[in-house]
């Protein structure tokens, strides 16, 4: 009795607390680290526990947080870091990109766009994880709002990547230069600007009902940032070559981001001006280009799928061609059809590149499931050189890719840390591999961390939910910490997976 009175008053304290602070607390704390949980709790099911994987895929983002961590931080081996980032301008917050301690604006914006798209399409299926997914987006967009606070200027990077990479340090110990780098009218960067506009526009759709004031701020900023991107055209890796290359050099140019940005602005504002922009500029921006790689650099196929929705669902006839452009991309993925181009490993994983291949697996799975959704609502199919491909076929292909990622592969290895009985133990990640502040409060200097980096010992801190670059073209995975191509996680690997897992958890995973 006494204890229930106690918890009752605790509950009220909690309510009071959540109303009187600006913190946004999610009520479900489901994703504790328990790699064996789904095996113990669901021994009768041979399939995957997509809901568990979904919780973990979102939890991962808390491990990448830079700045002042909130009291409800669930990955507790991390502490505050980067608290003076920005100096003249406040650039505290945002995400560390991957296994290092640099804040790269270009992939961070793409991460925010894809997390937002995940919630826009599949948020209705996320249940208790919806709140956590929104928080993961807000952690990025709060930062992007700071980075775009001055008109015609965007702060696109904090940290010197070469100097950062020369150290193996916890973010909490960082003593490498935290230089800030910006684009402006004289040194433009249309790809990073348009991607930032896409992120802000997409996120405005996520918050439109739940926090209209925030959503308005996001969309207003998105409009201004897109104008800047389009008006002052240029590739940021010209002006900032030494800073952003070879890390996040823009190889595909800015045309893809301008098209993608206009598509997001149209979706967020419904302003016909953007539709007109797409009609006038679509061809020159590469609407039907045949490069089918969708990731932090190239957004062409993302734009095609996104714009096909406006035709398929909203029946905007002027975007008719985008169904064809999207179909061409989809057909390139379907094995056994005349237009098939994609390569798969012997074990069945889509294989595009040696470095961080899993980002293409997650982004492709998301696009397949999203296109399947649009096709279904329009009662349409895809015709691949005479072969009819149904939305369910697309879902089946996406599910197979995600199942491979979660452990249905020759090595029986889950490529998501903390999911399943066997997962990567030596991920290329500074914070995960070094002892935590709690167990080792003393500073670990720049180069002394390399002893641990080069050792065979497993990482002491489990970065739950992190998805690594994955196996090579022959399904092999050495699990070596130095191997950044295969063993490094990155925010843009996880972001589209959040959407794919939400769909799969709803449709196949009511465990
Ligand atoms: C990928 O790795 C394979 C096998 O190690 C190698 O033969 C190939 O050249 C690599 N491809 C690229 C683009 O680096």
TrEMBL record:
What this protein catalyses is:
Endohydrolysis of (1->4)-beta-D-glucosidic linkages in cellulose, lichenin and cereal beta-D-glucans
Cross-referenced SUPFAM superfamilies: Six-hairpin glycosidases (SSF48208)
GO BP: any one term: cellulose catabolic process
From what superkingdom does this record's organism come?
Eukaryota
Chain ranges of the Glycoside hydrolase family domain: 50-501
UniProt keywords (A-Z) are: Carbohydrate metabolism, Cellulose degradation, Glycosidase, Hydrolase, Polysaccharide degradation, Signal
Which PROSITE patterns does this one have?
GH9_2, GH9_3
User: This protein is called what?
Assistant: Endoglucanase
The record's family statement is:
Belongs to the glycosyl hydrolase 9 (cellulase E) family.
Which organism encodes this protein?
Camellia sinensis var. sinensis
Record flagged with keyword Signal: yes
Q: Which Pfam families does this chain map to?
A: Glyco_hydro_9
Under the GO molecular function aspect, what terms does this record hold?
cellulase activity
Q: Which residues form the active site?
A: 428, 479, 488
Q: Does the keyword Metal-binding apply?
A: no
Q: Where is the signal peptide?
A: 1-22
Which chain regions cross the lipid bilayer? none
- Look up the EC number in the record and give it: 3.2.1.4
């Amino acid at each position: 009795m006494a204890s229930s009175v106690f918890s009752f008053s605790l509950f009220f304290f909690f309510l009071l607390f959540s109303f009187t602070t600006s913190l946004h607390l999610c009520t479900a704390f489901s994703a504790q680290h328990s790699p064996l949980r789904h095996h113990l709790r669901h021994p009768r099911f041979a399939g995957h526990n997509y809901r568990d994987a979904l919780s973990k895929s979102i939890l991962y983002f808390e491990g990448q947080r830079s700045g002042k961590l909130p009291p409800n931080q669930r990955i507790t081996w991390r502490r505050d870091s980067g608290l003076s980032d920005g100096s003249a301008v406040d650039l505290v917050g945002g995400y560390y990109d991957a296994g290092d301690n640099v804040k790269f604006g270009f992939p961070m914006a793409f991460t925010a766009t894809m997390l937002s798209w995940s919630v826009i399409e599949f948020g209705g299926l996320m249940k208790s994880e919806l709140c956590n997914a929104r928080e993961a987006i807000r952690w990025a967009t709060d930062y992007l709002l700071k980075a775009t606070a001055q008109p015609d200027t965007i702060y696109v990077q904090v940290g010197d990547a070469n100097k950062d990479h020369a150290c193996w340090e916890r973010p909490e110990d960082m003593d490498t230069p935290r230089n800030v780098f910006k684009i402006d009218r004289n040194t433009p960067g249309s790809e990073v600007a348009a991607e930032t506009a896409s992120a802000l526009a997409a996120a405005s759709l996520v918050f439109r009902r739940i926090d209209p004031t925030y959503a308005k701020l996001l969309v207003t900023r998105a409009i201004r940032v897109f104008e800047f991107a389009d008006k002052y055209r240029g590739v940021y890796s010209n002006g900032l070559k030494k800073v952003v290359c070879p890390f996040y050099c823009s190889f595909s140019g800015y045309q893809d981001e301008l098209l993608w940005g206009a598509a997001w602005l149209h979706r967020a504002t419904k302003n016909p001006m953007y539709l007109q922009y797409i009609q006038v500029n679509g061809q020159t921006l590469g609407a039907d280009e045949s490069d089918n790689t969708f990731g932090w650099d190239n957004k062409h196929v993302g734009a095609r799928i996104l714009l096909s929705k406006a035709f398929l669902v909203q029946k905007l006839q002027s975007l008719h061609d985008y169904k064809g452009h999207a179909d061409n991309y989809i057909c390139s993925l379907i094995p056994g059809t005349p237009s098939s181009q994609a390569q798969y490993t012997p074990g069945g994983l889509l294989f595009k590149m040696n470095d961080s291949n899993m980002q293409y697996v997650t982004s492709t799975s998301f696009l397949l499931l999203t296109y399947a959704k649009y096709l279904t609502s329009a009662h349409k199919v895809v015709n691949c050189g005479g072969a009819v491909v149904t939305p369910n076929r697309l879902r089946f292909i996406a599910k197979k890719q995600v199942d491979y990622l979660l452990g249905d592969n020759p090595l029986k290895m889950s490529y998501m840390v903390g999911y399943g009985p066997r997962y990567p133990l030596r991920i290329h990640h500074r914070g995960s591999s070094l002892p935590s502040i709690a167990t080792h409060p003393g500073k670990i200097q720049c180069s002394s961390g390399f002893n641990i980096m080069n050792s065979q010992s497993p990482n002491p801190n489990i970065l739950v939910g992190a998805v690594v670059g994955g196996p090579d073209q022959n399904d092999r995975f050495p699990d070596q910490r130095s191997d950044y191509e295969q063993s490094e996680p990155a925010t843009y690997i996880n972001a589209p997976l959040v959407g794919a897992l939400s769909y799969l958890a709803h449709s196949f995973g009511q465990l």
